[in-house]
Amino acid sequence: MAAPTQLRILVLDDEPFMVKLLVHMLERQGCVNVVAASDGAAALAMVRGAAPPDLILCDLNMPEMDGIEFIRMLGHAYAGSLILVSGEDRRLLLTAEKLAGAHHIRLLGHLTKPVLPDQLETLLGRWRPAPPRRAPAASAPYTAEELGLAIERGQLLNHYQPQVRVASGRVMGVEALVRWDHPRDGLVGPQYFITLAEEHGLIDALTRTVLTAALAQVRRWSDAGLDLRVSVNVSMLNLDSLDFFDFITGESQKFGVAPENIVLEVTETRLMQDPRAPLEVIARLRLRRFRLAIDDFGTGHASFAQLRDIPFDELKIDRGFVHAAWTDATTHAIHDASVGIARKLGLEVLAEGVEDEDDWRYIQRSGCDLAQGYFIARPMAAAAVLAWVGEHHAARRALPAAT
Ligand code: C2E
Ligand code: CA
Ligand code: CA
Known about the structure:
Elements: E1 9-12, H1 16-28, E2 34-37, H2 40-47, E3 55-59, H3 67-74, E4 81-86, H4 90-102, E5 106-112, H5 117-125, H6 136-139, H7 144-152, E6 156-165, E7 171-182, E8 186-188, H8 194-199, H9 203-223, E9 229-235, H10 242-254, E10 262-267, H11 279-287, E11 291-297, H12 304-309, E12 314-317, H13 329-344, E13 348-351, H14 357-366, E14 370-371, E15 380-381, H15 382-394
Parallel strand pairs: 1-2, 1-3, 3-4, 4-5, 7-9, 9-10, 10-11, 11-12, 12-13, 13-14
Antiparallel strand pairs: 6-7, 6-14, 6-15, 7-8
The structure holds ligand C2E and calcium ion (2 copies).
């Protein structure tokens, strides 16, 4: 691996003094290949030039093109890493971090002015060489026709991610997450085809495929002695027709899976014309004791209006308000408010995106009932679930207990 000292580093700041200071600090750390720019346009020219930087230290507050605009302009063209430098408040930094993430720019962290050499050294230590670019085929958009054929030909399959009770660590259920087993591109994630399905009238066929496979699977686990609840993602568009109600109740009976063990995770979609239309279907599903969860709570798609209108059983706090939520006062406040409103409405709370032990301890303290995330387990093939649950329970693979 190239040492950070060999990196081509670009310092972007409008204050000559700051540039000088940062370049000096970098050189003190042994960096030999440092260049500077005093405005965004000059920096962009370097990025697009023959020898683009591996790492950019970027000031947020600049008079012409500010740091936020600079990150947007960098967009997907830049393959290197980024360190933000700012005297601004944390919320602005968070916005910049989100933006960098949205553009898949690897952010090493931020430095607050006045910059200390130790801080800089820590961030430089986080530098890693860029991973090889994803095969272009995988990110290529698919056509509705291809997706339609894939559904017909049975190329969609479910992976399953465990959900555990926080107090005991016991596995309560799994969320079914669809993948496309593409003959050319391999296993393709749902972010590449769910919107396509919604826009081209394929979401009903897709959801039915996922649901049938999930219930058949729960039946098999149950026959093998493992009773699990299964959560299925349902688009509001699915809930627009009474056929869907008949379909779910039919499949539930066919596979002998009780409605109480079937969780429908509902998110709003921008495509929804009339949000009142699905209410009848939802009310009837609830009457039959299917479990309803509001997904991605805290994001624009899951709103208070939905909470008011739909008799949910479970609230899933979006991972944006779980992972590292304890590091930021605003995120923390939204997390706590979400738990609070769930309590008042008598809903169970599930924290999504529990990625590390710090997250796990945080949600224990905040009072979440259920948890899901990489810290517990990644989504896995159906065939791996039985063994994983057995191991998890037997070894009491000690998820740290409440303290
Ligand atoms: P979601 O419903 O929020 O599902 C959770 C997503 O978060 C999954 O991504 C999962 O792999 C990921 N995840 C789980 N734990 C962690 C963690 O600790 N950290 C992080 N960073 N991520 C974690 P996946 O499988 O790529 O699914 C993405 C989205 O696609 C889902 O988000 C859901 O909205 C949609 N989706 C998946 N399957 C279906 C489906 O059958 N129907 C519909 N309508 N949408 C689906
Ligand atoms: Ca979900
Ligand atoms: Ca979610």
